[in-house]
Amino acid sequence: MTIDLNFYATLVALVGVLLLGRWVISKSKFLQDYNIPEPVVGGIIIAIGIFCLLKYSGIKFSFNDSLREPLMLAFYASIGLSADFTSLRKGGRILFIFLMCVALLLFLQNITGIFIAKLMGINPLIGLLAGSITMSGGHGTGASWAEIFKANPYNLNAGLEIALACATFGLIAGGLIGGPISHYLIRKYHLQTISHLKEESPPQGFEKPEKERLITAYSFVQSLALIALALLFGTLLSEYFKSSSFTLPTFVWCLFIGAILRNLLSLTKIHQVFDREVSVIGNVSLSLFLAFALMTINLSELVALALPMFAILTIQVILMVAFAIFITFRFCGKDYDAAVLAAGHCGFGLGATPTAMANIQTITQHYGMSHIAFIIVPLVGAFFIDIINAIIISTTLQLPFF
């Protein structure tokens, strides 16, 4: 028996997934400590329930998917609208060095994943999904590329299940290894913060919330209009270049258009983008998109791929540990700030920006403040990594493996 849920019933189900996830997280210290997203928790619980109903009673659910793509595109448009390139000056030379380290890791994650997949005789696309797409991209990027890989010419039907499993694994691993690596570096090299020499230095960036603007109906419409423009021109460009040799996924075009809009408006001083409001719209879109993606995954397709996926992900964690110690830490100055940046890199190199922020907050609360880390990590993790990752993934797909 199949139960068809229309648009409104599907929307109720999506919101229900988020509310369920929030309630479960409120009861679990583990889920709170490792910043597991609400749609991941709620979505997996519902997916297990749907799987059990299908297996033991033959009841199947069919959801209306008309919201899925617009929600995904709105999330990436919000990332682009948050990309204020003038903020690059705040981080100075260290920011550019850190960006180069991030870009190098993205490339190595993809090559590692593809190599191990080929070695184990499985589809190299699985290795790519277990690379920078989910390790540095997280659930949103993983689910987005999985949709691309489901279609021709890739036809990877289990892509969504693989992507979300990898992203969840990476999220937990990123929170587990960041703190210990930073502790190790600080103790091995006897590093000390210089914050006690500059007690008069005021908090910066995410160390202290700035004065907030009120979200009003008019300002919300303005932010929504910018996202709508990014979606419109992004989809038009995607359609225009579809038949050419220069092709990018639609969500990448929306991200780029969002970034262009943001910086053109800043340059011409026509309009100041309301970052917090854009972030709210983007986060809501991502949460609802992930809720749909997770509650509709086919868990049975993961069983056959469990062992090779675990092998690839374990090697990715080892790569992240080695990279943070021998590359990120060394090239960023081999000082206390570099040790904190290494912890942050572990956070979004395997998981997400909230995990990176939790890592550096834990370290700085114990050893002392690192102003530069609280400027650079949010800047890179919030949007620059997604832009760089989109370019590197698209470039990797041009390799002969595919």
From TrEMBL:
Family: Belongs to the glutamate:Na(+) symporter (ESS) (TC 2.A.27) family.
GO terms for biological process, alphabetical: L-glutamate transmembrane transport
Topological category with respect to the lipid bilayer: Multi-pass membrane protein
Protein name: Sodium/glutamate symporter
Species of the source: Helicobacter apodemus
Main subcellular location: membrane
Localization per record: Cell membrane
Gene: gltS
Function: Catalyzes the sodium-dependent transport of glutamate.
